[in-house]
Every structure is written in structure tokens, then in C-alpha cells.
Design goal:
Layout lengths: L5 E8 L10 E8 L13 E2 L7 H42 L1
Antiparallel strand pairs: 1-2, 2-3
């Protein structure tokens, strides 16, 4: 679950009987009560494009993971810097 009412969801769409198009899949952000709230799943936030093969979907998921790791690094640096500044400020106060 991403937050209180959102989670990552795999949407998989099979072609209609007799349709020669391949199945499609993508990762989307969905509310927990999607059907109960009458939300059209096509209006949600999609985190990957339509993927026509597992290997394609897997590659996009790998890219999402890499982006999330980059996002994780930014606050780590900022928290580390803030902690160092707090330590320096406390030391300055202590030294008087």
C-alpha cells in the first residue's frame, strides 16, 4: 500500500474472443475501493505504458525501481546534512 487508500496494482487486459491483438498489462496507482466507489479504472494514474509482453512490463518495473532508489537517495542526503547541522548548532551552543 502506498498511502492510506492507494496501492500499486497490475492491470491486465485480455483481448476479446476472436481478437488477434495481444494482451496488455500496466502498473497503475489504484484506490483501495476501486469498484465500490464507481471509479473508472481507465482514468487512474498509470506508472507504466501499455506493455504487450512480460519482458516489456518487467523492464518498466525495473526502471520504476531505479527511479524510486534515486528518490530515496535525495532525502537520505538531506536528513544527513540536517543532522550534521543540528549537531554543529548544539556544539556551538555548548561551546558558548
Amino acid at each position: 500500500m502506498i498511502s492510506g487508500n492507494l496501492y500499486l496494482d497490475l492491470y491486465f487486459e485480455k483481448p476479446n474472443c476472436g481478437d488477434r491483438s495481444p494482451p496488455r498489462a500496466y502498473v497503475r496507482l489504484s484506490p483501495l475501493l476501486l469498484q465500490l466507489r464507481g471509479i473508472d479504472p481507465r482514468t487512474l494514474i498509470f506508472l507504466t505504458p501499455d506493455c504487450l509482453a512480460f519482458s516489456e512490463l518487467n523492464a518498466h518495473i525495473d526502471m520504476l525501481q531505479e527511479e524510486l532508489e534515486n528518490v530515496r537517495k535525495r532525502p537520505r542526503r538531506r536528513f544527513r546534512k540536517a543532522d550534521q547541522e543540528n549537531i554543529a548548532a548544539k556544539e556551538k551552543i555548548r561551546m558558548g
